Amino acid sequence: MTKGWGILGTLAAAMAGLLPLTGCTTYACTAIGWTNTLTVTVEGNPAAVSEVRLCDAKDRCSRPTPTPADPLPLRSVAPTFDPSAAAPPPAPESEPYPLFTVTREGDTWNFMMGMNAPPSATISALAADGTVLAEQRFDLAWTRVGGSEQCGGPMSTPPLTLRVP
Fold first, then answer.
1. Which has more pLDDT, 60 or 141?
2. How far apart are CA 56 and CA 142, in angstroms?
3. 161: part of which helix (H) or strand (E)?
C-alpha cells in the first residue's frame, strides 16, 4: 500500500488549485462611496429667495445646512444615575433624509446628494416666511464624472434654472 498522494495526485491537486486563476479575474473597486451633485441657478428675483428646496419622487426633501451656533459656556456636571428614571424615547422609524447637503453661492444652490441619483426632482424657491415663490419639476439626466462602469462613481446633471417672478 502506498502512502501520500503520489506524483499524479499532487499534480492534480496543484492543477485544480490553479484552475480558478486561469478562467476568471475579479475586479476590485477602490471607491466605496461618492457624492452626486446637482446645481440650481435662480433667475428673475433671486433676492426674494431665502431657500431652494429639492424633493425627490419619494417626497424626501433637502433642508438648509445648519449654521454653527455659538458654543455654550463650559460647566462642571457630576454624572448621576437614577434607575427609576424613564428610558429615553426610541428613535423615530423614519429619520430625516440625510443625503442632501445644500450650499449657496450667490444665486446658485449646490446639492450634494450622496450616492443617490433620482430620475426626477421638484425644485422650489421659498421666501423667508416659507411662502413658495416658484416650483418646477425636472427630469434629471445623470452623467458619470468619475469612477467606472463596473464600480460606479460620482455623477452630475446639467445645471438647472429656476425662474422666480
1. 141
2. 14
3. strand 160-164
